[in-house]
Design a protein that fits this description.
Number of domains: 1
CATH architecture: Orthogonal Bundle
CATH superfamily: MetI-like
Distance between the termini: 60 Å
CATH class: Mainly Alpha
Number of helices: 13
Helix content: over 70%
């Protein structure tokens, strides 16, 4: 082994984080913006009675699968929501759903344009790909440290950590979907005098929709996987129940709350997949 000097990398990172904390006003503004979105979702969920919420979800599922008549999914949703309400986890479930929807919304708003930019420029793809690799391979617990330093504790830092962890699939799949559009179609649209915006919105995005939606589905599932980790920094929801159960060594409470997360994950996965199939048709 070469006797090389040890780089003070940890000190450099800490110094950089401390330097960023001086922009407290900016981070406070981002926190207020995220809290506004979170409170809006939660206000809607609190406003709806439990029975109406279940009816709406089942109606959406039935509409998306009306030609296939997947009654098993409707039965699963009915039994799953009954279990969550019966165990007293309804409020926690809506808080978890708020965290997932907020994270997924931000991941879509940021990830899809970034994926389009990557598909249009090989240089951007070369720069962004290593960043996405870093975001996906870095342990999720590491994101909690700067999230707390910049945004405090609560739901907002949990959303930030979830977005960083869950956004790469949306970016990658958007880039992949657009790049897979046949060049013959692009040349045909150019020959008819279409602009770049018309080619993107009327040819590339419709043909890449299935791939993009697969990335959105994966981002939503990754965001849901962060709920237990985000509970360590004050994010409320089902993850908090699991986290407290681990601290008390309460296997029963941990299992029941974990099973509620599994039910919510299955419902979200099936509904988003049904939406994708409906759009493809």
């Amino acid at each position: 082994m070469l006797n090389l000097p040890k780089l003070p990398l940890a000190k450099w990172i800490n110094a950089f984080v401390n330097w960023l904390t001086q922009f407290e006003g900016f981070f406070q503004g981002v926190t207020n913006f995220l809290n506004a979105i979170i409170n809006s979702f939660q206000w809607v969920f609190d406003l709806l009675p439990q029975w109406l919420f279940v009816v709406l979800i089942m109606a959406i599922t039935f509409y998306l699968n009306r030609k296939k008549q997947k009654w098993s999914l409707l039965i699963l949703e009915l039994i799953g929501f009954w279990y969550i309400a019966n165990q007293g986890y309804w409020r926690d479930m809506t808080q978890t759903l708020t965290l997932v929807l907020t994270s997924s919304l931000i991941a879509i708003i940021v990830g899809i344009p970034l994926g389009i930019w990557m598909a249009k420029s090989n240089r951007v793809r070369t720069i962004v790909n290593p960043i996405l690799d870093f975001m996906q391979t870095m342990p999720a617990f590491v994101y909690l440290i700067p999230a707390v330093a910049f945004f405090g504790i609560g739901m907002a830092p949990g959303v930030v950590a979830s977005v960083i962890f869950a956004m790469p699939p949306t970016v990658r799949m958007t880039n992949l979907g657009i790049r897979q559009v046949p060049h013959d179609l692009i040349e045909a649209t150019d020959s008819f005098g279409s602009t770049s915006w018309q080619t993107l919105t009327q040819v590339q995005l419709p043909l890449a929709k299935s791939t993009i939606m697969a990335g959105v589905n994966q981002s939503m599932m990754l965001s849901l996987s962060m709920v237990v980790i985000a509970s360590m920094i004050g994010a409320m929801g089902l993850g908090t129940k699991v986290y407290f159960a681990v601290g008390r060594n309460d296997a029963g409470s941990g299992f029941t709350a974990g099973f509620a997360i599994v039910i919510l994950a299955i419902i979200l996965d099936r509904v988003t997949q049904s939406f994708n199939k409906q759009k493809n048709k």
